[in-house]
What does this fold into?
Amino acid sequence: MLRISRDLTIDENDIDISFVRASGPGGQNVNKVETMVEGYFSIRNSALFTTEQKDTLEGKLSAKINSDGLLLVKSQVHRTQLGNKAEVLRKMTDLLLQGLKKPKKRVATKPSKAVKERRIENKKRVGQTKEGRRKIRGGE
It folds into this structure.
């Protein structure tokens, strides 16, 4: 069982896991052993999420969802299948948690009186500087 939040857990049987030969460090071992792990999870067919949550997840995680509609997560950072499998499960829970998070609403704020006064003072100062650059006409 994979715990996503207090009230949300995924059965590991819902995640299809496959093993592939990884690239990178491992010497001769890397050519013989399939240590890279790919985890596939169908958000659409999951009974854990409401239709609304499924739509939200599919929208936010669209870059990680393949053409079959499966959420794909890979890991090859560890030299063992077990380590990479644990990493895939961790990444998947993090992705699903991030996808379900609701963004905070922006609170509109107004500039303070002091800020407005500072802005006006600065504008006046810049205006006076530019005024001093003008050519004097007819005063000779």
Remarks:
- The chain has a mean pLDDT of 83.
